[in-house]
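Hi support team,

I submitted a single chain yesterday and got back a structure, but I'm not sure I'm reading the token output correctly. Could someone confirm the output below corresponds to the sequence I sent? I've pasted both exactly as they appear in my results page.

Thanks,
R.
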Amino acid sequence: MSGTWPHGPVGVLGAGPVGQTTALLLARWGIPTVVLDQRPARDRIGSKAICQQRDVLDIWEAVGAGRQIADEGLTWTTARTFHRDAELFAAGFADPGRPAFPPFVNLSQSRTEEILDERIAAQPLVNVRWGHRVEELAQDDEAVVLRCATGSGPVELRVPWLVACAGSRCDDLRAQLGVTFDGHSFDDRFLICDIRADLPGWATERRFYFDPGWNPARQVLIHPCPDSTFRIDWQVPADYDLDAEVASGALDARIRQIIGERDYEIVWKSVYRFHSRLVDRMRCGRVLLAGDAAHLVSPFGARGLNSGVADAENAAWKIAYVGYGWAPDALLDTYHDERHAAAEENLAVTTATMDFLVPQDAEQARHRAEVLAAAATDPESRARVDSGRLAEPFWYVDSALTTASGDRPFRGRPPRGQVPAPGPGVLLPDAPVTMPDGRPGRIRALARDGFLLITTGGVDLDAVRAAASGVPGPVRVVSLADLDTDGALGAALDARPGEIWVVRPDAHVAAVLDDPAQVAAALRRAAAAGARPTSHTV
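Hi R., thanks for writing in. Yes, this is the structure output for that exact sequence:
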């Protein structure tokens, strides 16, 4: 995609799905990476993060994995919510444009990692090194120096940048970087069981139960997975003892309260505790923190792994633009600005959910009881029932890289299951298009090759090309008429005559302009060119 990379391999710390995605996305930009993981090899224990959102599948498709993950995963289209034994509502999902993927698919994290490993094995620019524990990190104006312990002795590596995706337990790393990880942990535990059973009619829907008779005063969440497997999460007391429940037969009774006398097999079981935490800085000099190393949220809403993959994409294109000399170092400051804001949104959403699920005081408990009681008959009350607002792409409307448009203002967080109207800061709706070489393709695939300018009717295409020609880095200018042979993209954009859509390399809209004379400034702004760098401690 790009010219010769003028630096050494970029470091990626952690070979989980966020680290894998980071390395593969950097490879798309022609950037070599060395991926370090302290484990001796890949562990394939448990389902872990199972719920993959469609726009994350789209990112994975950019590295050749999205379609396989979607095909192997189980597609679900409906989220059902119950109070005790009564169904309160069933929610679907809006389709922005004509997307390539369903709203959500469920596939175990271990299988997702295997698929990404297959792509890494075919990618010579990615070098994965297991058994490398980073014990010391230092950096200067030119590189990050990593001192690692390995089975064959100490190893020192020098990398131009490091993306740290080392997971939630990298306290030593955060301490060396001098970042805080403030937040709190919830007292109640959650029991997970992956069971294999025949449950007709449950295979395409998520089920959430408030206060069911078989888990009174607490919640249960059921997710379908491939191979007739169902992930069941029970909220349990802080002193819950899984081993004692297995030994007494109470776990079998707990499962049978849901599935009846059907045969079943336990595939995996575990107990975990929720945390809500966020680092104060996601950029520390030449180190970018991503995924669980930077933020932890409760899993209701599937905002953990999905937001980590978005971290990876944001980091990758910005490292590429700075490393190739197409953008100033200030562009990396906006990694923190944008992804920290996304993490704050996720914390706000998931904290509100947890306050509803596990009230923190008498007032919250009273509110929850009143809402659930009213939701049985009142549609407005149903909208206030919070069983988890599901993952969605963050909108960079307040980013320094975004040029606002008075004609397309952002209206705020949309209703549950909906998406914002297309405009500056919002992820470009996906749709099938005719690619410049005449092949059928998708607009987001075209967008991820660099900056993309889409012009509507009445715009002087040559003037736009001339304005964009002086901007460093890959820029493609195309007319909507040439792309949109069946009208799907124009309809998704609500395109109007005289518009120039400026789309970033992560497929987020940077600007919607009405004059070719504005193009160069919008492109420079979207690459942080001329921006005043903010402080980032080395």
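A quick pointer for reading it: Residues 531-538 have pLDDT under 50 and may be disordered. Let us know if anything else looks off.

Best,
Support desk
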